[in-house]
Write a structure and sequence with these properties.
0% helix; 6-stranded mixed sheet; 4-stranded antiparallel sheet; 10 strands; single chain; mainly beta
Length: 118
Amino acid sequence: QVQLVESGGGLVQPGGSLRLSCAASGSIFSINAVGWYRQAAGKERELVATITVGSSTNYADSVKGRFTISRDNYKNTAYLQMNNLKPEDTAVYYCNGLKEKGVFPYSWGQGTQVTVSS
């Protein structure tokens, strides 16, 4: 089974930047779409950004213009460049495939904590 490992989170001040990484145990990103998700304390997990096999990207309105999703098929790793971070971005960030018919294709990893605070 595919395992996903997120990394790159940390504590950053408002306006700062972070780059998150999502490493997959198998070569899946070259043939499957990738999504970044986040879950803030007490809230549901939400979709943040997606990138398709054809490299088409989409972003949640709350992060559009600030976040950039990308993929390195050779390294089998997906990334989320996060700029101009806001306190509202504080959450645990996860990667996965895209939910289809109510189902996610892979098991969730542990996620990586992003905390935006002064």
